[in-house]
Specification:
The protein has one domain. Strands 1-2-3 form a three-stranded antiparallel beta sheet, with helices on one face. The protein is elongated and about 50 Å long. It contains one helix and three strands. It is α+β, with helices and mostly antiparallel strands. The structure holds zinc ion. The site of zinc ion (ZN) has 8 residues, from loops.
């Protein structure tokens, strides 16, 4: 049996983190300094022009790795 309460809590959680990622993306793309929530290193926007295969927002250690779709 599925625990409905648990399920909706899970859904809520993933929605929140998606909203957080979008907010974070906006800030980084606007040139603001945003620190990785895990390691407190500044997040950097990487684009294919910089020689990386995928666009994304990453920290030095890689605990934050948000893929972006520019195309
Ligand atoms: Zn990190």
């Amino acid at each position: 049996m599925i625990d409905i309460k648990q399920f909706s809590a899970l859904q809520k959680k993933s929605k929140n983190s998606f909203a957080n990622q979008r907010q974070l993306m906006k800030k980084v793309m606007a040139g603001q300094t945003v620190l990785c929530p895990a390691c407190q290193q500044p997040l950097r926007l990487q684009t294919p022009e910089q020689g990386t295969e995928n666009s994304g927002i990453r920290c030095k250690k890689g605990c934050t790795d948000i893929q972006l779709d520019f195309v």
